[in-house]
Specification:
4% strand; 9 helices; 4 strands; 65% helix
């Protein structure tokens, strides 16, 4: 059953009241007119108050959200969700750790995640280096694992060390983009292009 539009209903009521007012006596006409005006004002005021109240609620929500922004108009929850959409296999659901620790240290969390994906293949299935050594950045050193790569006691430790390494050996020297890092981080000249492609993929899932 179709509902009658509100405007049509109001119009019908208005016409009905006018009709009654025409037939009524002068004193009754005045009373009917006053009652109609009173009802109309009350209805309009209630509707306006509801609209203003809803607007203020939404405005307050937006103001509160702005206070929680941590990265490119995203809250920590939104940033974490975006990163987690791109992290699979062994490193699934590590988005919060990557996001929070990167921001704490002063590293771009999306760039850090893109490098991890480039170095590990964790966009689909993580490499042996991640599964056996907890090494997410292809970092070399001792204690050794799988050749000259470093082994970490836990995945969380490996992630934090990787982010610390980005800051201490790259960011501190102004190497804060994939292009600037390329010659120092990897032998392949296409490394930065691959990392930047991952950055685009990550941000497309926001």
């Amino acid at each position: 059953m179709k509902s009658v539009p509100i405007r049509l209903t109001v119009t019908v009521i208005y016409i009905s009241l006018l009709f009654v007012a025409v037939l009524a006596k002068p004193e009754e006409k005045t009373k009917i007119h006053e009652e109609y005006i009173t009802q109309s004002v009350a209805t309009n005021f209630a509707g306006a108050y509801k609209d203003v109240n809803e607007f203020n609620i939404e405005k307050d929500k937006e103001e509160q959200r702005k206070k929680l922004i941590v990265y490119e108009d995203m809250t920590m929850n939104e940033l974490t969700t975006m990163l987690n959409k791109n992290l699979n296999s062994t490193i699934s659901n590590k988005g919060n750790l990557i996001a929070s620790y990167s921001l704490e240290v002063g590293v771009d969390p999306v760039l850090a995640t893109a490098i991890i994906l480039q170095e590990t293949g964790c966009k689909w299935d993580c490499s042996y280096l991640v599964k056996a050594c907890n090494n997410v950045g292809g970092v070399k050193g001792s204690p050794g694992c799988n050749g000259s790569y470093m082994r970490y006691s836990s995945l969380d430790e490996g992630i934090k060390f990787f982010i610390d390494n980005l800051y201490n050996n790259y960011y501190k020297y102004g190497l804060n983009t994939a292009a600037k890092m390329n010659s120092k981080y990897a032998e392949s000249t296409s490394w930065s292009t691959n990392v930047n492609n991952y950055i685009k993929q990550i941000k497309a899932t926001s």
